[in-house]
Amino acid sequence: MDGKQGWTVADAVDYKGFPADRSKTGGWVPAALILGIEICERLSTMGIAVNLVTYLGGTMHLPSSTSANVVTDFLGTSFLLCLLGGFLADSFLGRFKTIVIFACIQTLGTGTLALSTKLPSLRPPSCHSDENCEEANGFQMGILYLALYLIALGTGGLKSSVSGFGTDQFDEKNEAEKTQMAYFFNRFFFFISLGSLTAVTVLVYIQDEVGRSLAYGICTISMFIAILVIMSGIKRYRYKKSAGSPIVNIFQVLVAAIRKRNMDLPYDYNMLHENSPEGSRIHHTDQFRCLDKAAVVAEGDFVKNGSGSTLNPWNLSTVTRVEEVKMMARLLPVWATTILFWTAYAQMITFSVQQASTMERSIGGFRIPAGSLTVFFVLAILLTCAIYDCFIIPLWKKWKGKPGFTDLQRMALGLILSTLGMAAAAVVEMKRLSVAKAVGGTTTVNPLPISVFMLIPQFFLVGAGEAFIYTGQLDFFITRSPKSMKTMSTGLFLTTLALGFFMSSFLVSVVKKVTGSHGGEGWLADDIDNGRLDCFYGLLAILGVMNFGVYLVVARWNKKDDKAVEMESVV
């Protein structure tokens, strides 16, 4: 009997619902099948996003600012929908079903996009001069939006569950599998970068030189194959039972605290309600004391039934449940100050690509697609990760006795590098505009006699910044959240990406309206040669400096808060 128990995984089941057999389920084989669908998701999403702005401007004839907003809204929605996917996975579907269902939705979206770029009736007629350009009509844009937001919905559901389902294949309580899980995270990030690299090189080249419908068709077929591959491992996977959505738990604490807002807290916090198992209890802390009222016992908190009474979770919460909400609340200040990084990131796949489309991109007889300039962005991420792992971590461990920078330090580096990237982008754009003015703009000379490789510094700086801030945020949100809310905290992290893209759309709309209000086209003109994109980049750099100042205050508060929580735990 003891031997039998040793071969089963405590909190996982197989496809029949029986306790998972360690020798027949989980491990690297099913994890590899899950990594395959992540490659295809990145190939589709990034391959579409990085070059979409050129299609919107060149084929659909939309203004540059409108094109940029379409792209950032699409990406923002993709990451925001991760919360929906996580909620459905935790509460109803489970991670495997969520992945398969939303992968099918993404396949439908890429297929619709391939169709919309293939049929002449779904795009406006070609134009030979600026005066005769006809923008896409409502029906044409409607089909395009349908395709993009089906892809966004599919991406949101996939991203919310793929990494979690991958880690489900390893048992944290088994030392050998725990080590394998650490490697899984590294390989997961590697495959994300590999999919992105393939997207910004091969897929973008096919879009520009062969045809967009073929490129999007490749995305559709690859995702369909990935669905078949992941379904082939049904008998090999380990499945975790849904434990309910942490979002509901948070709302229960908030509702209970609001209902009891007029009640007094007891003089002794041991009088607060607590019935959690001893091993999983969280000690009471003094922060956010208003939430403690959710654990004050009052009349009507227990509902009588035939066998006794049951607790109404919307009226009364345990101290542990309240402390879990407090832990999530402590994440919010850092969450808010990292949003602006992703606003700067958004410029790399919108306005920076538009800049590249006007510049000299030839190497010998080969012309680099404008969207492929983001390859330097991906290379910066991979190079930074390699340098950090091979050099910085060992040196820092010898000097400080710690394995690399802390999560707060990595996020700080990301914010600094993105601000420097926006400053570099402003300087390069000033140079590009001076060349455009000298030769009469791209309507006279196309491309402009200025090398596209001048854009490399901004791509490298923001790319290196992402390597630091992405890993720093992931570490921060996972390690500082309660065990029962790890999925929720990951979703919270992904909302910083979503809100960063939406912030970009908001800033673009505001700047377009304010600077173009006196009859001129303003900073963000339809033709960037007639605008002042350098001023927009400069604005983002200034906002970055201000945001970093706020971040330093928040980071210092978090360090003090960590010490206070440690002292409470000791007591």
UniProtKB/TrEMBL annotation:
Pfam families: PTR2
Cellular location(s): Membrane
Annotated membrane topology: Multi-pass membrane protein
GO biological process: oligopeptide transport
Keyword Membrane belongs to the record: yes
Matching PROSITE patterns: PTR2_1 (PS01022)
Protein name, as recorded: Nitrate transporter
Lineage start: Eukaryota, Viridiplantae, Streptophyta, Embryophyta, Tracheophyta
